[in-house]
Amino acid sequence: MEKNVWKTFEMRFKRALSCKGKLNSMLGAVRISDSLERFETSSDNAYLHQVDFLRFPFPGKPRVTHVFLDPPYTDDVDYMGFSEFWGSWLGMRFPIQLGRHPGTLSMEDNTARIQELLERVRENTRPSCRVILAYGCKRPNARQLIEKAIMGAGYQIQDTSPIFSDNSQKRKAHEFTLTDRYLLLTAHTPRPTTAEKEVELNALDISASERTELKFFVRISAYWLSCSHTQKLPSLERIRETANDLIRPSLREKFPAIMRGEIREWTLDNQANRKAYNRLCLSFLHLILSKDGFTIVSAENSHFDDSEVPGYCDVRHLPRPTGVAARADFVAAGNNHQRIVFCFLNKEREHTLKQIANRVIESDGDDFRIMHFLVFADHQDMIKHRQVEFVEYWPRGFFLCLGELAGRVVELYGDVYGHLRLFVQKATAGFRVEQKINHFTAEVLSNKPVTGDKNCKHFKIKFEAPELKYVVPGQFVMTDTLSVVERKRIEKRTSFCVEEHASYAKIANLTPHSFLKRPFSIHRVFCDYFKFGYLKNVSLPPNLAPVAHTVFPSRFEIFYQVIENGVGTNELTKVKQGEKIEMLGPLGKSSDLAHWRAQDIREVHLVGGGVGMAPLVFFGQGLKYYSFRVKAFIGVDRIETLLYSARFAPTFSEDPGNAYVYIENLLSIGFVLSDIYVSTEISTKPSMPFRRLPEKNCHVGFVTEQYRSYLDSRENLDGVLVIACGPEPMLRAMRGITLEYDIPMKVLLEKRMACGIGVCMSCVCTTKKNSSTEYSRVCTDGPLFDAKHIDWDQT
Ligand SMILES: Cc1cc2nc3c(=O)[nH]c(=O)nc-3n(C[C@H](O)[C@H](O)[C@H](O)COP(=O)(O)OP(=O)(O)OC[C@H]3O[C@@H](n4cnc5c(N)ncnc54)[C@H](O)[C@@H]3O)c2cc1C
Ligand code: FES
Of the ligands numbered here, which is closest to the C-alpha atom of 559? Predict the structure, then answer.
């Protein structure tokens, strides 16, 4: 303990002794017990105990006459509480847990906790017991708040005395304000007797089963709040509010009648809180999975609350998980013999969880017949564990969080569980909305033409950039087309020119090189531990998929076409493996594919013309993950443009043998050949890949023709959505077709872009809202647009 803190404490204590006769008389010669037992049986005057005060085991001895409290100030002074002062003064050792210090609480939360603290004192002491509260109210409103809390707890301020010392010793005597005070509190109304309390409780008309139900949700709330980063010690008020959002509306009316003391008692046992929370998560998962034919087959029932709560699964009758899933929290099994192992994040069982994850991988290989999920109470915690640094902790595992599970339950069972409010709000407030644009340096892992042909115009560049972790299909990056080293070299040369010559020389000198970054869509993403092509094997339960997450991707690929005389794309071909390039991203509006199903979309047709197919592969990846039915229509001028030889296959991590870009990519993300359609403007039969594609899926002519005849062959087009990307004439033709067949369409637009972040207006296109014309920026309002919002006459 710092010397000045010691000194301050002593000064404070002496001050307390001398400042008022009332205080003086109560703090005379104090004998301190070192155990509660001794305090209760001896004539000692005081007892010191290091514990969160809300959990303080009040001694049975009814002669506590004074309580001295020094809670944290409302202005979050970052020093340890009064108990530490006492402890160090007496030479006692306390483990100091920094995380427990409520310095991060808001003023309102802090004051609510003080009210609880006072209530607790009041409930456990005689009415004549007096309380001295050391308190500083420096922020605006603090004084009113604390007075309200004191009154709310049944006390009144009988006297005050200024505090003239300061922990930091930074203030000079004249700087002390009279807002730092000792407050002498006395009870303003007599406490109800036990008999009175009983009468009060009987009047509430809460049955035993309702009480059990309320207790269940109170416990869940206490646990959930304590898992959140800002609520290590949730106040009773917060617990009540949270529980209120979980309980049935008919019970909500009765909830306010439950006494604070009772609520506190319910939440004292953290294990019991955790068990209630586990049961809630299991129940949510049971509801979601039952839509896909899964049932819960085993559960470690000692980990679950076993009270009678209707509508929330009781697992007492289930056997314990065995074999690969031994020591997991519970297991679900589907009709297709797929098993899903669930574990709750539990810091005390970290090692066990890791063992389970590794056992699953050992026994299942990459088959995904057994999947393992880790369930988080807190969304931020889940995000943390999805980072690449944590991947070893939970290899090849999926992540879920309570907020998103609750949201899914409300989506699927709104009529019964529509009252679940709080968790759902939390879920929608975060995640994709939270993403921010990063300026980062990406390491190039490979940059190769897709064919062995010297004149090949199509390249794939793969790079490592964990900063892009939130990227979703349709989004893009602005990338430099020179490596960092090359860019610096050129800048040096040009600055020399500027110094030497007129400023136009700089511009003149720059012309052979790109100046601005270029926009490119993300073609594919790769996650550690999820081997390339894993989507061929994984089949997530469709109703769970929208809330199931993998580790964040860390590697990405762009498929780019080299433009004749294009400065940037030609430069980009020269960037080598191991070099670094600067990027900005993820850019563009993000679309939430996971929840398209809620908009009645069941099947998506991806129609791509030429390099327009590149971003659609990422859409395919996302849509397959979320278990949509997907069909792809690829339009190219000639198939040879996409043919790459076996020599390049390992670079692209695909099967050796002559293969075709896009087709191979689509197969690797779980497409079957019958769902891939190819049109070539120039017939190259018989060397075309038609040896693998069904004859009916191949067409010579425009992709739009092929798509129209495909639609003709379909009887039912309900729930179909089209996403198209390609040259403008193709998009116009697609607009006509989709209008004719009455299918919704989204288009990925491409415009020249200078900034990519909505500043320069170089990418503006004409859109319509209702019947009025608007201008939208493709970079920030798109690039994915609803076809019906585009003004096709002007664009
Ligand atoms: C959101 C978005 C995503 C894109 N994704 C991809 C992708 O995944 N793969 C890919 O190969 N290309 C993609 N492009 C196109 C790519 O950005 C351009 O081909 C590239 O910027 C050309 O750069 P350059 O320096 O080689 O050409 P420049 O020297 O800048 O221009 C050469 C010629 O190309 C034309 N041109 C340049 N940019 C565009 C453009 N955006 N649209 C139409 N014509 C253009 C110019 O008018 C000029 O005639 C995307 C464009 C956008 C806006
Ligand atoms: S690229 Fe600058 S506003 Fe869109």
Answer: 1
Q: pLDDT > 90: what percent of the chain?
A: 30
- The whole-number average pLDDT for the span 239-243 is 87
Give per-residue pLDDT as tens, 464-495.
998 898 899 999 999 999 999 988 887 766 65
The DSSP secondary structure of 278-312, one letter per residue, reads HHHHHHHHHHHHHTTT-EEEEE-GGGS--S--TTS
Verify whether ligand 2 is closer than 6 Å to residue 518 (CB atom).
no
pLDDT at 171 over 60: no
What is the position in ligand 2's atom list of the atom closest to the CA of 759? Answer: 3
Q: If we measure between CA atoms, which residue out of 528, 219, 522 comes closest to residue 396?
A: 528
Task: State if residue 762 touches ligand 2 by the CB under 6 angstroms criterion.
Answer: yes
- Residue whose Cα lies nearest atom 49 of ligand 1: it is 566
**Closest Cα to atom 4 of ligand 1:** 520
Q: Best substitution site from 476, 760, 767 to test ligand 2's pocket, by max atoms within 8 Å of Cβ? A: 760
The helix or strand, by DSSP H or E, that contains position 9, with its residue range, turns out to be helix 3-19
Ligand 2 mutation target, pool 475, 476, 587, 777, most atoms within 8 A of CB: 777
C-alpha distances (whole Å) from 767 to each of 627, 771, 776 are: 32, 10, 6
Q: Count CB neighbours of 653 within 10 A.
A: 15
Strands (E), 488-642: 518-521, 524-526, 555-561, 580-587, 603-609, 629-636
Q: Options 3.30.460.40, 3.40.50.10170, 3.40.50.80, 3.10.150.10; which CATH number does 438-481+517-748 get?
A: 3.40.50.80
Q: Six-digit token pair at 219? A: 């416990």
Tokens representing 481 are: 């087309």
CATH topology of domain 749-795: Dihydroorotate dehydrogenase B (pyrk subunit); domain 3 (2.10.240)
The Cα 280–Cα 304 span in angstroms is 9
Q: Give strand pairing partners of 721.
A: 604
Domains 438-481+517-748 and 749-795 share a fold: no
Helical H runs in 437-502? Answer: 484-500
CA of 760 to the centre of ligand 2 (A): 5
Q: Closest Cα to atom 37, ligand 1: which residue?
A: 752
Q: Are 576 and 447 in contact (CB under 8 A)?
A: yes
**Distance between CA 451 and CA 456 in Å, rounded?**
6
